[in-house]
Amino acid sequence: ARSLVIVLGDQLDLAASAFDGFDAARDTVWMAEVAEESTHVWSSKPRIALFLAAMRHFALALRKAGRTLIYQQLDDADAAPDLATALRAAIAKHGPERLVMTAPGDWRVLQALRGVARDAGLELELRDDRHFYTTVRDFAAHAKGRKTLRLEYFYRELRKRHDILMDGGKPLGGQWNYDVENRGAFDAEGPRDVPEPIRFEPDALTREVLDLVASRFADHPGSLDAFAWPVSREQALESLMRFVRDRLPQFGRYQDAMWPGQPWLYHSHLSAALNLKLLDPREVVSAAVEAHEDGRAPLADVEGFVRQILGWREYVRGIYWTRMPDYLESNALDAHVDLPGFYWTGDTDMHCLADTIAQTLEHGYAHHIQRLMVTGLYALLLGVEPKQVHAWYLAVYVDAVEWVELPNTLGMSQFADGGLMASKPYAATGQYIDRMSGYCKDCRYDPKQRTGETACPFSTLYWDFLIRHADRLRENPRMALQVRNLERLDDVEKRTIRDAAQLIRHEKGTPT
Ligand code: FAD
Ligand code: SF4
Questions:
Q1: What is this structure's pTM?
Q2: Which of 27, 301, 444, 502 shows the smallest number of beta carbons within 10 Å?
Q3: DSSP H helical segments within 133-280, as ranges?
Q4: Would residue 203 count as lying in a domain?
Q5: For the chain, what is the domain count?
Q6: Do residue 177 and residue 56 come from a single domain?
Q7: What ipTM score was computed for the predicted complex, to two decimals?
């Protein structure tokens, strides 16, 4: 072959830059399912299944499009265990003149493939990933000379540059941001008439994958019984269409709300399809903007949605690629507690955590506030080592790929980068969870109590967190109010809180 075109499991787009100038007579596509991608973190069954099912459907699409393909299946007798070994074998067998690919999302994968190319004396041509509005170079230019990075300015620049929700030079509706309208909670009755999400019954190809995952990764966390994710471009487009029609009009209002037994609410559930590149962010944003233009969705909801994709998604990618590999090691709060074993089972009497983890294991999904203010918050307050928190998030969610997971986990939720991504730690008591969800009324703990028999562990640990980090937090103007409240506590109360927190670490923190 002239070029061996490398396609990774999260690069499933027939129009990707890797295929520019592809000549079916001379070039060959190479894809490989390798065990290491499922085992380097203890990847959940739904996550493994989604990647493999989507890869196999993409292989079909490639063949249909007439592109020659070399494809290693995980269950091939001679399957190589990791990407580097598999690629080395392919080079030896097919003798390409060069390697071509769209730049990978993961730093680790890029290093591995570069190493193989170097050893083989072959050029590895890396092409820009067009599945983003920005390049890493754009972000680096934006970040240059700034001490701290904030989403807001980056996002406004992109709105202007791409003319999205703009009215001449001004933001449509006169405001850049409708966040205040996007913090609604449900009343005591909870959500009513939430539209059913679209489900995709596994076809024969996906069922094969489900069987393979069930037997090969039997001891991995999570379950496959409810698997219904879109695994092809056609399905992903259908998901997008259904979201825009049914959920987008209420998306913003209930964006931060949580309810027991309601994993889906008004969210889009499109992150996995976007990250696998079954969808392009531009078509997702356009569909939402058009819905507003046609009077099908209010501006506040559409802006809230666009901000997540045009803003956050691009922004975290920029952070990842400008900060790796050091970012992985960050631990600004010097946290060293082990991740509690119940994160892998959901077996805890804290209702918010039990429910969030149960749906995570069943579907590979939880929405942003569950990730940030339930599982993330508890790990932050407990003082779990950031790397262990990272390994959990990367393992359990179907949309988890490192470039997006790592900054969200280390930066936003654990404050491990010391404030590069978030202006203050997302620390809160159980009362925040109570305000935003229906979890607390059916919990044996009381979010208003910080010590005593029925004290909510979040509330105890919140005060313990403030005590432990008081010196550092005092320097942060955005934490002033919280620190002032802390200073009202006398030494006896502080001692009681610290003892209660130690007991929680001891009793609830047991790793398995
Ligand atoms: P919606 O609420 O419908 O949002 C629409 C889209 O916006 C999402 O599909 C996603 O593409 C994008 N988006 C929203 N928030 C973010 C964000 N903070 N960063 C980047 N993109 C965002 N997202 C991932 O895609 N993969 C991850 O591995 C991941 N790990 C996370 C870990 C932690 C600790 C936290 C706090 C957040 C993480 N997120 C991750 C971001 C966010 O929680 C998910 O993108 C979102 O919950 C996916 O569900 P959805 O598609 O229904 O999103
Ligand atoms: Fe979670 Fe505390 Fe509320 Fe129980 S009381 S659901 S542990 S926040």
A1: 0.97
A2: 444
A3: 136-143, 151-161, 204-216, 233-246, 248-251, 271-275
A4: no
A5: 3
A6: no
A7: 0.99
